[in-house]
Amino acid sequence: MIRHIVFFTAKDEDGIDQILEGLSVLTSIPHARRLEVARNRKSDQLGNEIDVVVYGEFDSEAELDAYKTHDLYREAIRCVRPVRELRFAADYELSTDVHFAGTGGLSQVAQRRRPGGRD
Questions:
Q1: What is the number of helices (H) and of strands (E) in the chain?
Q2: 52 to 30, 48, 56, 83, 92: CA distances (angstroms)
Q3: What is the dihedral angle through the alpha carbons of 97, 91, 24, 79, rounded to the nearest 10 degrees?
Q4: By the 8 A CB rule, do 110 and 100 touch?
């Protein structure tokens, strides 16, 4: 599974609602297993610059590609680009790229070994 996370900042406070509205069409694209669009709560003690978050889960690279080439994706870009300042995106494969804590505090690793045996 691939997780796709995108962070947006608005050019000004009034643009946040427009970004949320423009990105909400993404939830109608059928290729995501899960897709969320949300306003950042801005409760982090170190930084609260991000205004809006998009979180998606996709079963494969092909599903993510189909999502990114869908007409509604292009519509969201058209609506959001004029009012956004910054956009940061990250994609990662859950089964191979993730370090995570399991139940009971035991650390589990699902990370591909690098060539030469280095981590």
A1: 4, 6
A2: 21, 11, 13, 12, 20
A3: 170
A4: yes
Closest CA to 34 of 56, 17, 52: 56
pLDDT one-digit tens code per residue, 63-81: 999 999 999 999 999 999 9
Specify whether the CB–CB gap between 67 and 76 falls below 8 A. Answer: no
Q: Scan for tokens 């290729």, then name that residue.
A: 31
Which of 37, 26, 18, 38 is closest to 68 using CA atoms?
A: 26
pLDDT digits (tens, 9 = 90+) for 26-57: 999 999 999 999 999 999 999 899 999 999 99
What does each C-alpha distance from 107 to 3, 16, 44, 96, 104 come to in angstroms?
Answer: 20, 37, 24, 15, 9
Alpha-carbon distance of 1 to 3, in angstroms, equals: 7
- List alpha helices for 39-119, DSSP H: 61-68, 71-80, 94-97
User: Is the overall model pTM greater than 0.90, yes or no?
Assistant: no
Residues facing 54 on adjacent strands: 6, 37
